[in-house]
What we know:
Layout: H1 12-18, H2 26-34, H3 43-53, H4 63-67, H5 73-90, H6 103-108, H7 112-115, E1 121-127, E2 133-141, H8 151-160, E3 165-171, H9 181-197, E4 201-208, E5 211-214
Parallel strand pairs: 3-4
Antiparallel strand pairs: 1-2, 1-3, 4-5
Amino acid sequence: xxxxxxxxxxxxxxxxxxxxxxxxxxxxxxxxxxxxxxxxxxxxxxxxxxxxxxxxxxxxxxxxxxxxxxxxxxxxxxxxxxxxxxxxxxxxxxxxxxxxxxxxxxxxxxxxxxxxxxxxxxxxxxxxxxxxxxxxxxxxxxxxxxxxxxxxxxxxxxxxxxxxxxxxxxxxxxxxxxxxxxxxxxxxxxxxxxxxxxxxxxxxxxxxxxxxxxxxxxxxxx
Length: 222
């Protein structure tokens, strides 16, 4: 596959132009630095092979190891090493934004008042490509037994903050975290909207005083 076969809105440069660097994966950012691939492999594939060759992270990659990889060579290796060194020099502080890569970490960012609330609250957590939280928002507060889910209200902040993905969470005042038919239907609608917008729904959590339910962990997002 060549890069031209990828839809324009999904190509790294176009994706960066319409959103922000945080919306791009490591592979896409690396592809922008490398610029081109080589015969038989596009630049995204080359970037993927470089990352696979350094599972511990590119922070430990040196010039010689990079230059020795197929498709890299001295010029590309030098450009990448220079970019990595600039990143180290300009990173004045450690990025302390929480990483929401599993339900327990999402729950840590959920106010206790939501879990024990007498009304349903729908919260959305907007993430960058590294699953770091960019923004969180209370999308709606429902009645004692139901919360209306409007996809436009869930995804509008995602677009505004250039999120790469999102997680939604709502509480069940009943104390039972088992999803209702309405919960399942709302999840399917959010999944479809996320697919259309290119901002995937990574999980839908239901929390209650007795525990939580994760649609992802139960295999219900496929």
